[in-house]
Structure formats: C-alpha cells, structure tokens
Amino acid sequence: MAEATHELAGGDHGHHSNTVSLLGREISVEGGIYTVVFGALAILTVIEVLIAEFLKGAIHDSPDAAVGLTALKAILLLGIAVIKSSLVIWFYMHLKDEKRVIAAVLLLPLLIAALSVMFVLAIPPTGYSI
C-alpha cells in the first residue's frame, strides 16, 4: 500500500507542472501553477465581494450618483468575472494546450452573445416611440 501511494505521489503527472509558457515566456512557479491560479481566483473573488459591498453602500449614500456608480459596479464586476473565467478556461480546462481552432470555436459564440447583450442594453427602458 505504501509503495502504491509513493508511486502515485512521485509518478509522472503529465501536464501538472511548475512551468507555464505565457506570452512566449517560460514562467516557473514554486508550488505549481494551479496553486497560483487558485490563489488568484480567491483574491479576485474577495475583490468582487468588496467592490459589490462598497459600491452598494456608496449608491445608497449618494442617490444623485446612483446611475454612474451602478454602471461602474457592473463594469468592474463583469471585468473581474471575465478574468476569472479566462483563468479557469485557460488553466483548469487546459485550453492553452489546445489548437487555436478550439479557441475560435469557443470565442465565436461568446462574441455573438456579447454583441447581443450590448444590443439589448442599447434599447432605452421606455422603448422607442414611433
């Protein structure tokens, strides 16, 4: 039993590595890249919660600036969500190891969805009067 555990722990982990190629540079991270990505995701989650709570209080305290602060809150939270989802897709789902065609197949529907959301957001809440 001890030999089997040692064999699993010390065996070849394949794609699990301390080194990652990012923007043409090799970056080595002690403890593994997955640990660093997990830490980044945790920090970004804490930042999201802080932004949401801080801006919720600011919106409540300043009704005159509510529209601008709400827009700022949405932009910041969506930006962080895109960064977090990119980290998950890139590292945990191993998209960085796939061919570029797979990335295009994934990104094309996201582009269409983003354009659709922007179109819906451009419509005034009262609609268009003809």
The mean pLDDT is 79
Cα gyration radius (Å): 21 Å
User: What order do the SSEs take from the amino end to the carboxyl end, as H and E?
Assistant: HEEHHH
Number of strands: 2
As a percent range, the share of helical residues equals 55-70%
Can you describe this structure?
This protein is mainly alpha-helical. It starts with a helix and ends in an 8-residue tail after the last helix. A hairpin with a 2-residue loop joins strand 1 (about 20) and strand 2 (about 25-30). Helix 2 runs antiparallel to helix 3. Helices cover about 70% and strands about 5% of the residues. The protein has a domain at about 15-100. The protein has 4 helices and 2 strands.
Lay out the secondary structure.
Elements: H1 2-10, E1 19-22, E2 25-28, H2 33-61, H3 66-92, H4 100-122
Antiparallel strand pairs: 1-2
Q: Characteristics of this structure?
A:
130 residues, 4 helices, 6% strand, disordered N terminus, mainly alpha
Short characterization:
Helices cover 68% and strands 6% of the residues. With 130 residues, it is mainly alpha-helical.
